[in-house]
Design a protein that fits this description.
By secondary structure, this protein is mainly α. It is built from 4 helices and 2 strands. The chain has 2 domains: 29 residues; 61 residues, AF1531-like domain (DNA polymerase, domain 1, Orthogonal Bundle). The protein is rod-shaped, with a radius of gyration of 24 Å.
């Protein structure tokens, strides 16, 4: 085999490997209805958790907002409903919707 033939064969083999691995990785994105996303957020008791625990558990809530949640809780007592979190600056309806099933009160 000539050097150019070997090079072409190597390039073609590399392309085939890349295409097959890319097609496999992209397959779930082709049909979002069949995608299974791993659960990365676990329930958190917003009346007892620390700011780092809240930030780690709630999607869209960073450490600053989590600290505001803890400060609000200390100043006003425990949250009675998940919706009452919207009294905290930085927490809105979308944040609550993203965290349905993650926010615990007990």
């Amino acid at each position: 085999m000539k050097k150019s033939s070997k090079t072409r064969a190597l390039i073609m083999a590399s392309i085939l490997v890349l295409l097959s691995s890319t097609a496999w990785a992209a397959e779930p994105l082709d049909n979002p209805a069949t995608m299974v996303m791993p659960e990365t957020h676990h329930p958190v008791n917003i009346n007892e958790a620390s700011a780092p625990q809240i930030a780690a558990a709630l999607k869209g809530v960073g450490l600053k907002t989590a600290a505001a949640i803890v400060a609000y809780r200390r100043a006003n007592g425990p949250f009675k409903t998940a919706d009452s979190l919207m009294s905290v600056k930085g927490v809105g309806r979308q944040t609550l919707l993203k965290n349905t099933g993650v926010i615990s009160l007990e």
